[in-house]
Amino acid sequence: MHPVKIVDLFAGPGGLDVAAEKLGVATVGVEWDASACMTRRAAGLATVEDDVRRYGPSDFPEADVLAGGPPCQTFTVAGTGAGRRALDEVLRFVKRLVAREDREEIDRDLAKLEDERTGLVLEPLRWALEAIDDEKSTAYRAIVLEQVPAVLPVWEAYAAALEDEGYEVDCGILRTEEYGVPQTRKRAVLIARKDDQKVSLPEPTHRPYRKGVPREAGDQTRAEWTTMADVLTRRSPFLVISNYGTGGDPKARGRRASWEPSATVTGKIRRNRVVSLDGTELERFSHAEAGSLQTFPVDYPWSGSDVGQQIGNAVPPRLAMHILCAAFGWSRPTEKQLQSLTTWRSVTASEPPFLDRAVEADVELV
To answer: Which residues does UniProt assign to the signal peptide (predicted)?
Structure first.
């Protein structure tokens, strides 16, 4: 399949959209965070700055692919844990949506959750089912969702629901370094396609990272994992000392060397110390460097406030490119396509494609 357009819910600064645009697929993102929207606009990405709950498939009639990465804070280990405690309740809401219970009644019950962000994980399913049921809409040809690993049971419930609606579905946990991202990070991913072709998560291309295991060891049919030094232009080797301690003991803080992948990039990456091998303090990671560890283009126009949080919350574009190719039934991305992620381009009057795409949606773009 070749999509017409992707509507990306909770689109953030554009990780999935960057990958899609580089693959030649138009996108429009719905995102409520003003700073993330500033970054998106600076990058020339079509953007609706608003709450996804205020919209639905009929607002984006040209979009034939649904994507989304709902807020993860309540599901993460570092977060409050409200999502994990409410997991059983969320799964019950999935069943209620599938049963097409009264939407207003469901919304009233969602409002009673400990943290309202927990219920946002249900929005992609609402959009998918509305597209199926609405006579004015057409069911999405493909669906792509990603979240922290704790959300996998929700994606599995989604999978069962979507299979009953005629979709081929696969979901599971992907490790970013196994796709050439210079960072260890696990993501729960679901891909679905509405045709008779079997759909599968993308096959890994790189070896998994293991502390103390040589880079050249392991499956020789895969490439070596990518290191921080491979994507950053620092002059000499360095160590990164995590801002997270263990039991308050600074000596127990995690360390990664420049010849290893980065630990998971979080919104607090600027708190990580960077030191030379002799312990000399070095400049901490810039926004451009943090973005490169996420595989954003080195010249990506980060804008607004709390850029670190924007970067930490984003989907790594390189991983997104692999996922999208799998979702569309395409071959894995070529090296040329992957390399295209290293640079972005500014929006100018002489470069109309991004500008044209910014006005294609039938809703106001800001």
So the answer is: none
Tens of pLDDT along 165-214? 999 999 999 999 999 999 999 999 999 999 888 999 999 999 999 999 99
Cα 213-295-270 angle, rounded to 5 deg:
85
pLDDT in tens, 251-261: 556 899 999 99
Q: How far apart, in whole angstroms, are the C-alpha atoms of residue 31 and residue 13?
A: 9
The CA-atom distances, in angstroms, between 301 and each of 35, 65, 231, 287, 289 are: 12, 26, 18, 10, 13
Q: In the numeric block, which tokens belong to residue 216?
A: 């050249």
Which domains are present in the chain? Answer: 5-208+314-357 (3.40.50.150), 228-311 (no CATH)
| Radius of gyration of the chain, Cα coordinates, nearest whole angstrom | 20
Token readout for 302 is 């980060």
The predicted model scores a pTM of: 0.90
Side by side, the strands of the sheet bearing 238-241 are 255-257, 238-241, 273-276
Looking at residue 251, its pLDDT comes to: 59
Q: Nearest CA to 182 among 292, 21, 337, 32?
A: 292
The pLDDT value given to residue 359: 33
Identity of residue 143: I
Q: Cβ-count burial of 10 within 10 angstroms (0-12 exposed, 13-18 middle, 19+ buried)? A: buried
Task: List strands edge to edge, sheet with 142-147.
Answer: 47-49, 26-31, 5-9, 65-68, 142-147, 186-193, 168-175
**d(Cα 125, Cα 156) in Å, to the nearest integer?**
12
Choosing from 37, 72, 171, 325, which is the catalytic residue?
Answer: 72
